Amino acid sequence: MILQHSTTRLAASLVCCALLSACGEQKAATESDPLVTIDPNPFPSAYTAPETVPTLIQNVTVLDGVGGKIESGMVLMQDGKITAIGSDLQAPEGATVIDGQGKWVTPGIIDVHSHLGVYPTPETNSHSDGNEMTNPVTAQVWAEHSIWPQDPGFSRALAGGVTTLQILPGSANLVGGRAVTVKNMPHRTVQEMKYPGAPYGMKMACGENPKRVYGAKGGPGTRMGNVAGYRQSWADAQDYLRKWERYEAEHKAGKNPKPPKRDLKLDTLAGVLKGEILVHMHCYRADDMGTMLDVMDEFDYQITSFHHAVESYKIADLLAEKNICSSMWADWWGFKMEAYDGIKENIPMVHAAGACAIVHSDSDLGIQRLNQEAAKAWADGRRVGLDISQADAWQWLSANPAKALGIFDKTGSLEVGKQADLVLWSQDPFSTYAQAELVYIDGANVYDRNDPDSWPVADFEVGQVGEGDSK
Description:
Elements: H1 2-30, E1 55-63, E2 69-78, E3 81-86, E4 96-107, E5 109-114, H2 153-159, E6 162-167, E7 175-183, H3 190-193, E8 201-205, H4 208-214, H5 223-252, H6 264-273, E9 278-283, H7 286-299, E10 303-308, H8 316-322, E11 325-328, H9 346-352, E12 356-359, H10 370-383, H11 390-393, H12 399-404, E13 422-425, E14 436-441, E15 444-448, H13 459-462
Parallel strand pairs: 1-4, 5-6, 8-9, 9-10, 10-11, 11-12
Antiparallel strand pairs: 1-2, 2-3, 4-13, 6-7, 7-8, 13-14, 14-15
């Protein structure tokens, strides 16, 4: 009897197991786990546009940023946008009217290469957060997680007419990590400064820097080692993309697959391969840039801009053909071997070849006078017979940087419908004596040279001793 009871119980158990198994198979065949996806923007912008009043600036020389110049011009701003530009405009009721007789208006300056906030002042080791020198490829790090919004450099740049800037990691690594574009508005957190809708950049570096940093750390220690490092990273990113594509295809087919393991480094590299993240590459020599064009073609991604690029004049036709910008200094050269063959006519020569020429800073001091840097390059070009107008040259400071950052549809020129990011200069902005008198971001007056009490002040500028405190 006991044996018979056990046998009956065993049979019943087997039947239950079979039923449960069938139920499980039926569930798998009819429903699957939710599709796992990767959020491409886990740290969204918290920027809010400031309040504005309609403003008409009149009796000014206008450079529109895309090659146009208007004498005795007028610009109307309403609700944060450029609503009219010309010579005979009417101010709406209640508008602020600014008479700029003898003055100039341009789009706000956009700096594509800044380290403000990641190498802020006071310049101490505790503030040095721009280079993650722990591996030749650190695509997983994001510059925004190092930015200190209270860097006094932001307000100094604002006084120089800079309304937008890209903040990048340093150039120690083959891949230094993600860059972020911010509006030059004083805020408490970087997310409140982050430019809404701007794509991320990714910093890469070629040549001497990664060689120097990693030559004593096990490599790469040569240019060929650098290139091998890029290629392996792109190959890994391709494999990572294929895994996610296979997972998504199998999920769509109802196979209930297991998602691939998340890899933050490969997330960023894959974002480049998908065209979502823009490559900004520190590269000086023409031959190094040519090699990187080969790697770009091999792995089918796009370099948006070569930075520093003191030898771009040698390959300006290739840059134009490949639709790659060159972000350059006016006259920095010779401070290391790969910078030795720079020439002062570099920027205008790139422009004359039909390529996208940009003036950048890479300096907390240079960013304060980028208009003068552009003026030097413009003058050097004219001295060798490159007759480029001031209106065309201003593209180096606004339209072309906006294109390189993927925000030209929003800013970079004074065109109806675009954001009202502009500067009123005391005189011709190509003059050494020109000063940014008024700076507007999204149509709001965020800097007034004649009103020092309105200037933003960082904690380290206030001081640490209170009034009446003798200690």
